[in-house]
Amino acid sequence: MNHWNYILMAYGAFAVLMLWDYAAPRRALGQAMRAIRLKQRRGGPA
Amino acid sequence: MNKIILWFNQTGSPPRFDDFATRWAGPSFLAAMVLMAIGIYGALWAVPADYKQGDSFRILYIHVPAAWMSLSIFVIMAIQSVIALVWRIKLCELLAMASAPIGALFTAVTLISGAVWGKPTWGTWWTWDPRLTSELVLLFLYLGVIGLYAAIDDRRAAARAAGFLAIVGVVNVPIVHFAVTWWNTLHQGETIRLIGPSKMDSSMMWPLLVLLAATKLWYIGSLLVRARVLNLQQESRKQWALERYGEVK
Question: How many CB contacts within 8 angstroms connect chain A with chain B?
């Protein structure tokens, strides 16, 4: 394999992990907001 | 009251922190992405190939910033855990626990990019070298903190237990850093110094400095979003959260 294949592999892994770090908390944020709406529907503040 | 302490106390209240994180996460990510684009352009196309390693040295432009972040995030997490345990500041618990997955991510980037660089340079993906092994232990410590926090139902007790592990585990940070001087290792010694001349030529240095700044801004952005999620999960029954994110406002 030439060096550029290794470079692509390393930068590709970096990009995938950074994308995951960007997307995963946003998904969790959406879920947390949905959970708040659900709790409100079920009976309001404790 | 000291202005900094006053600001920290105010920002430490859950609704104020939610405002703060909402306001600053986006700009941090944006600045990080712009700097990353500039840094990666410089690393891949602008700087010349190394006279010994050829083009494979370009991998170090992501490996080195990720490695620095993997160590500094663990130290930050341990400091936040000490503050959380001693002064019982809830925000510090959230920040410490939100730091763990980001630190684990940068440690994974360090190990993967190091392995990919090692194959053409050393002829092997992996060797049980002190620097590599201690970095792998760092990943396990991050995973331990994440796992312990997830395993206990009581969120505050979970943060305290996981924070204690972070404080104990911080002993591994100097081991990773000094592994190249304490033992005979395959891994190269210090190339870039904060104080004194670096071994890297200045024409090759700028993308590294840009990517170092980018990864720090990325950490801030990611930390704010992740801590905001933990904050909302814990405050989901509170009036402010219902007013802000509920259906009836």
Answer: 95
Q: Is residue A45 part of a domain?
A: no
Residues in chain A, total = 46
Q: Does B119 touch chain A (CB under 8 A)?
A: yes
Residues 151-170 in B contacting A (C-alpha not used; CB under 8 Å):
none
CB contact under 8 A, A36 and B245: yes
Asked if A30 reaches chain B (Cβ–Cβ under 8 Å), the answer is no
Q: Which of B12, B171, B3 is nearest to B87 (CA)?
A: B12
Of A17, A26, A28, the CB nearest to B108: A17
d(CA B220, CA B80): 14
**Counting Cβ atoms within 10 Å, is residue B17 exposed (0-12), middle (13-18) or buried (19+)?**
buried
B217-249 pLDDT tens trace: 999 999 999 999 999 999 988 889 888 888 765
Read off the pLDDT of residues B185-195 as tens digits, 9 standing for 90 and up.
778 777 777 67
| Chain-chain contact of A25 with B245 (C-beta, under 8 angstroms) | no
What is the per-residue pLDDT across B12-31, written as a single tens digit (0 to 9) for each?
789 999 999 999 999 999 99
Contact B229 A28 (CB under 8 A): yes
Q: Is residue A6 part of a domain?
A: no
User: Are B246 and A36 an interchain contact pair (Cβ–Cβ within 8 Å)?
Assistant: yes
ipTM given for this complex: 0.89
Number of residues in chain B: 249
Helix (H) or strand (E) holding B60: helix B60-87
pTM (two decimals): 0.92
Number of domains in chain A: 1
